[in-house]
Known about the structure:
The chain is of the alpha/beta class. It has helices at residues 2-13, 35-52, 56-71, 81-96, 119-122, 126-129, 155-169, 187-195, 246-256, 317-331; strands spanning 20-22, 102-105, 110-112, 134-139, 144-149, 174-178, 203-209, 215-219, 235-239, 261-264, 274-278, 283-288, 290-293, 310-311. The strands form 4 sheets. A 6-stranded mixed sheet has the order 4-5-6-9-10-14, with helices on both faces. It has a 3-stranded antiparallel sheet with strand order 2-12-11. Strands 8-7-13 form a 3-stranded antiparallel sheet, covered by helices on one side. α7 (155-169) links the parallel β5 (144-149) and β6. The longest helix is centred in the first third of the chain and has 18 residues, at 35-52.
Amino acid sequence: MKRNLFILLILLSLGLAGTVVALPDLFRPDLSVDGTTRAQTIDTLVARLDQHYVFHDRARQIEMLLRQRQHDGAYGAITSGERFAAQLTADMASVAHDLHMKVKFSPKRLRPGVEPDVMPRAASGAARARYDGVEDAGHLSPAIGYLRISSFPPRAAVAGAYASALDKLSDTDALIVDVRDNGGGDPASVALLISYFVDGPTRLNDIWSRDSGRTTQTWTEGALDGRRYGGRKPVAILAGPGTASAGEDFTYTMQALKRATVVGARTWGGAHPIALYRLGDHFFAAIPHSRTISPITHTNWEGSGVMPDVAAKPADALAVANDMLQKQLDAAPSR
């Protein structure tokens, strides 16, 4: 369930090119694939990697491996669509170690060119009401606030929620932002949230696109709907293995800016924005087409994750951060 939610948030938040949509069909949950289907899937996957994967040299290395395994008959006995997709994913990972890159199987027929309308089917009722990703905003004590963000949905869905939360927390002297279970989302929403924690225009991460060959700078926003928390009050971020993708973007960027102390454990380690590409009637691939680059560190968190400033078990991170901030406030000059 957690993995499915993470994939859903990625699909909703990134400008996906070549996306797919499911059509009604009578196929079983798993589909028996034949040699022709396997060969066509590999051919199309290799072409899409060559066209779009952010590291072109690794795309060629993946092609060499897939072709060699194909020649050796490694896929010949696989008739399950699910197993074939999983094996292709594992083979790509053995070369690229890119956590966002996957081949997926759909028992329903797929057609190109239409972005799936996944939100109405995937969430309803209470789940849809929380689609802004703001799970909690309140006070741990009169001086210390707590903000829990479980995802970064598209900017239009979160602007009002961020404004309301930061207005509510503006009277605190320190803040804990909890992204321990944040599965990712929209970089634009990350930039909006960070905007509340700086005092002026601040350059965040750049994004280099393989498709266009251009680098786009990301900056904080000037006019905000809510009250700016500012760049001086102490902020702690709770993070861990459940912090992924855009959740890591927020954590990594705030840490690089020296705007927050990260408390917890190493995060998931996926930094590259993806798009979906149809490989055939029943297979599609998530292929990273861009690379996030910090103007401060000149790299990103792909593969390595974000390392905490203060190590703690994720379950203990809140108590550790609260104690740390309280000591900082107690040691500070009278306000």
